[in-house]
């Protein structure tokens, strides 16, 4: 398995080298003011690879890099994003849909406004004659519509980058037809093969989200965009015509088979690199676990385990104290913890990808973030998922459907439940076998996701926006696309006409009968 992985990784690197040289180096504007650390796992490798190939960048980003290369200019908006980041940092277990929607509205409003009125960004919105020009825009597909105005200012194509996988609005922007009867909304936690009731709930939630987004979020974004770019900026539906491609952080090997037009490119796993050697002391800790193995525990970069309630923390410590296995816990708080046993080791930061590649790792306890799920699958490690919100719920459900994970309810983290979940995976080899199968499917790709991303971005540059990739579906109105108008003309109108004709005939017959009766009656009277 490992050799197979290495082979794939080396051939991926070879491919990167033998890709045709770009004919001209382009000047690219990248806009991702919502980037958290995990989102940057998508943007970072792409921008790095393109700068290495000689393209120059201007980047509006909440994740600025230290000491950027000379062909990389950045506008640092990290302070704008930071306040909102904290909102999601809180472990709010019972955030209702309405409160979540309100938070999303508030976040998009604030970030759009502050980003667009940032003095450096204003210079890009109102370029002077001597200002730099751009050839392409890499645009976030995470509440980024208020920023689409750049494509109109510079009259250049846009490529959407979607770090959280595709949204329903991603599909509609690029004309991919996806029906809620066959594709589960990621936050609902259903499998794509749904029962009748699940299809009802999935349809209602997908339509509900779309109506909320198009009815409330987008009009608000558009009004902010008009303030920033001027009254004559076209509406968002019109600006969507600048979109050449969408690149999404999904791959069918892990996320399932979904409709893919030529303008939807899956680049899931782009951030996963061939494993590097671990630091010596960590390597010794892993090796020292022997046959029993190691349980790796991390709740990701946003959701910090230090925010766990005390009783939850104690439940984990109590459960771990009864294990033969060693436990490596990414923990940002006090160290050591009261009651912590010798088999447990706490670290503020850990090289997760490299660690998961160690053969002694038996289980990864995770919040179910997309990047963590991809890393675990690429390394073949089964999961215990503790999802809190958003796509984590869907990722963990997906992993359970694939039988590579056990779920723990974040509201019910008791010692007994934690131990049961661990023992379930340790005692049933099918979890590990299933994940190893997925690992080999992921490894069996013609090209590395990063090569794929670079190829398609340069394809758009070479082909002047590659307008030929855009399906007609992208420019139809919803009632045209879903054939409501055709249904109306072909079914509703003829049926109405039939009913009318039937009614008139009935009336006519009735009248004839009545008048006949009348003549009969009157003739009777006369007799
Ligand atoms: C970006 O801005 C923040 C806050 O203004 C600052 O703390 C940080 O050092 C800056 N980062 C870089 C790389 O310039
Ligand atoms: C918590 O987990 C236990 C054991 O699995 C279960 O019996 C109980 O119903 C759960 N409680 C809640 C509130 O979900």
SSE blueprint:
Layout: H1 2-18, E1 27-32, H2 40-52, E2 56-61, E3 72-76, H3 78-89, H4 97-116, H5 119-125, E4 136-140, H6 149-154, E5 158-162, H7 168-174, H8 196-229, H9 236-239, E6 243-248, H10 252-255, E7 264-266, H11 280-288, E8 294-298, H12 310-321, E9 326-330, E10 344-347, H13 352-356, E11 361-366, H14 370-379, E12 383-385, H15 391-401, E13 405-407, H16 415-427, H17 430-443, H18 449-462, H19 478-481, H20 484-526
Parallel strand pairs: 1-2, 1-4, 2-3, 4-5, 5-6, 6-7, 8-9, 8-11, 9-10, 11-12, 12-13
Helix pairs in contact: 4-8, 12-16, 14-17
Bound molecules: 2-acetamido-2-deoxy-beta-D-glucopyranose (2 copies).
Describe it:
With 527 residues, the protein is α/β, with parallel strands linked by helices. It folds into 2 domains: 2-90 and 107-179 and 223-268 and 447-475, Rossmann fold, CATH 3.40.50; 280-443, Glycogen Phosphorylase B (Rossmann fold, 3-Layer(aba) Sandwich). It is 49% helix and 12% strand. The protein is built from 20 helices and 13 strands. The strands form 2 sheets. It has a 7-stranded parallel sheet with strand order 3-2-1-4-5-6-7, with helices on both faces. The protein has a 6-stranded parallel sheet with strand order 10-9-8-11-12-13, with helices on both faces. Helix 12 links the parallel strand 8 and strand 9. Helix 4 (97-116) runs parallel beside helix 8. The longest helix is centred in the C-terminal third of the chain and has 43 residues, at 484-526. The radius of gyration is 29 Å and the shape is globular. The termini are far apart. One 2-acetamido-2-deoxy-beta-D-glucopyranose is lined by residues 64, 66, 76, 78-79. InterPro entries: UDP-glycosyltransferase, UDP_glucos_trans. Residues 1-25 form the signal peptide. This is UDP-glycosyltransferase.
């Amino acid at each position: 398995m490992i050799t197979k992985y290495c082979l794939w990784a080396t051939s991926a690197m070879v491919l990167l080298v033998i890709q045709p040289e770009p004919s001209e180096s382009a000047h690219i504007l990248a806009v991702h003011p919502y980037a958290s650390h995990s989102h940057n796992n998508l943007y970072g490798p792409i921008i790095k690879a393109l700068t290495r190939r000689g393209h120059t960048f201007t980047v509006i980003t909440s994740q600025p890099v230290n000491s950027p290369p000379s062909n990389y200019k950045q506008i640092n908006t990290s302070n704008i994003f930071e306040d909102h980041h904290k909102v999601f940092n809180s472990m709010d277990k019972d955030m209702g849909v309405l409160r979540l929607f309100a938070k999303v509205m508030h976040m998009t409003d604030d970030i759009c406004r502050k980003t667009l009125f940032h003095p450096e960004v204003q210079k890009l919105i109102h370029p002077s004659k001597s200002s730099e020009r751009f050839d392409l825009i890499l645009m976030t597909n995470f509440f980024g519509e208020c920023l689409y105005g750049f494509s109109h200012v510079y009259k250049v194509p846009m490529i959407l980058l979607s770090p959280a996988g595709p949204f329903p609005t991603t599909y509609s922007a690029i004309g991919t037809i996806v029906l809620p009867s066959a594709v589960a909304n990621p936050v609902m936690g259903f499998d794509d093969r749904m029962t009748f009731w699940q299809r009802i709930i999935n349809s209602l939630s997908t339509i509900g989200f779309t109506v909320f987004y198009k009815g409330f979020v987008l009009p608000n974004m558009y009004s902010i965009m008009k303030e920033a770019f001027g009254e004559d900026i076209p509406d968002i539906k019109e600006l969507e015509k600048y979109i050449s491609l969408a690149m999404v952080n999904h791959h069918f090997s892990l996320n399932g088979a979904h409709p893919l037009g030529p303008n939807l490119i899956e680049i899931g796993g782009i951030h996963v690199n061939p494993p590097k050697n671990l630091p010596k002391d960590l390597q010794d800790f892993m090796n020292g676990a022997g046959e029993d193995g190691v349980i790796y525990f991390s709740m990701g970069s946003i959701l910090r385990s230090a925010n766990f309630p005390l009783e939850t923390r104690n439940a984990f410590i109590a459960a771990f104290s009864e294990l033969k296995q060693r436990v490596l816990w990414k923990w940002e708080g006090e160290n050591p913890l009261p009651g912590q046993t010798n088999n447990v080791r706490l670290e503020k930061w850990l090289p997760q990808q490299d660690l998961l590649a160690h053969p002694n790792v038996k289980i990864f306890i995770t919040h179910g973030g997309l990047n963590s799920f991809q890393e675990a699958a690429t390394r073949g490690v089964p999961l215990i998922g503790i999802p809190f919100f958003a796509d984590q719920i869907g990722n963990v459900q997906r992993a359970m459907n694939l039988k590579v994970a056990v779920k723990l309810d974040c509201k019910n983290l008791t010692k007994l439940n934690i131990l049961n979940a661990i023992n379930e995976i340790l005692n049933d080899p099918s979890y590990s076998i299933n994940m190893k199968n997925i690992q080999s499917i992921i490894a069996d790709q013609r090209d590395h996701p990063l090569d794929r991303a670079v190829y398609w971005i340069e394809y758009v540059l070479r082909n002047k926006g590659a307008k030929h990739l855009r399906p007609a579906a992208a420019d139809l109105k919803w009632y045209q696309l879903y054939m409501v108008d055709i249904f109306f003309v072909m079914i509703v109108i003829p049926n109405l006409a039939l009913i009318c004709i039937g009614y008139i005939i009935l009336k006519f017959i009735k009248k004839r009968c009545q008048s006949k009766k009348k003549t009969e009656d009157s003739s009777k009277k006369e007799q």
